[in-house]
Design brief:
elongated, three-stranded antiparallel sheet, alpha+beta, about 300 residues
Length: about 300
């Protein structure tokens, strides 16, 4: 009797795998202890580095290796960019407060008087760099000079490698009788301050109502007083201590008269903030003339 042919399903069911391997049951149907053991033994998800290592072991082509390395670089750059954004967001939640601690006061080449307050580079760096470091961010500057033009770039770099650059340019600062080297140095210092502030999105405060932040007039007053003490000349310190009375220098007298000619708007802050006690003492004999100039200005 001829054997009855098996159906296709029967043939498949009775066939043994050519490799001699048996199929593992589905993990979801296993008892809990067995399922946990199986999950522990499963290989981790492929990472770019494991994929590159695997490709090297099986002798992948140079083109395939290049594509895997490009994939690795893109993934790492994306992670670094997200880490940078997260760190800057955390930095902005509690940004440092930078107070203007110095005053510039000089006569221009045309004879006009220029006066303004600012935060010097040391103050800006002291306030910002420590706060950035808490979030894994550092900064550096690069400088390029082309003739009389100076360009400074401030770069913020996260510890994972992502960076952001801010660039500003300016002419060499020749105000106040600076020589060529001083003019370039002043411009570089100015641009370093403002590129760092711009990169971090930080504004300095001077205690006026339009600062957009809480007023800290005591901090402004203390910073200005500290600046005057650091920059005071030995002769001024001695005059203040001993009460010596002597005539003002031509430059001091010219500055005082220029401030008085601007009325109360310029003379009051000049007299109360810009001058040391010794300098006010030197100008006592000129006070009547200065007050007359202020009254004549009518401002």
């Amino acid at each position: 009797m001829q054997p009855v042919p098996k159906t296709k399903r029967q043939r498949v069911a009775s066939a043994k795998p050519a490799t001699g391997l048996t199929l593992e049951p589905r993990i979801g149907n296993m008892p809990e202890p067995v399922r946990h053991q199986q999950l522990q033994q499963m290989p981790a998800a492929d990472t770019p580095m494991s994929m590159i290592a695997d490709a090297a072991r099986r002798g992948a082509s140079l083109e395939e290796m290049r594509q895997l390395m490009d994939l690795r670089d893109r993934l790492e750059a994306g992670e670094a960019r997200k880490a940078f954004v997260s760190a800057m967001t955390a930095f902005k939640r509690n940004p440092p407060t930078i107070i203007k601690n110095k005053a510039a006061d000089y006569t221009t080449d045309k004879g006009g008087r220029t006066y303004y307050q600012y935060a010097d580079l040391a103050t800006v760096c002291a306030g910002i760099t420590a706060a950035l470091a808490e979030h894994g961010i550092s900064h550096d500057w690069s400088t390029i000079q082309a003739g009389d033009n100076v360009t400074v770039t401030c770069t913020l770099t996260h510890e994972l490698g992502h960076s952001k650059a801010t660039t500003l340019s300016a002419q060499a600062d020749r105000t106040g009788g600076k020589n060529a080297i001083q003019a370039v140095g002043s411009a570089v210092s100015y641009l370093e301050r403002y590129t760092l502030l711009a990169a971090c999105g930080i504004a300095v405060h001077d205690g006026s109502d339009d600062d957009g932040g809480p007023l800290d007039r005591n901090a402004v007053k203390e910073a200005a007083q500290s600046s005057r003490q650091r920059n005071a000349k030995p002769a001024d310190v001695a005059a203040a201590k001993n009460g010596a009375q002597q005539g003002p220098s031509p430059q001091l007298l010219a500055n005082a008269r220029a401030a008085a000619d601007g009325g109360h708007v310029t003379f009051d802050p000049f007299w109360k903030t810009d001058l040391t006690p010794a300098q006010r003492g030197l100008l006592r004999d000129e006070l009547a003339d200065l007050e007359a100039r202020v009254k004549k200005a009518g401002k």
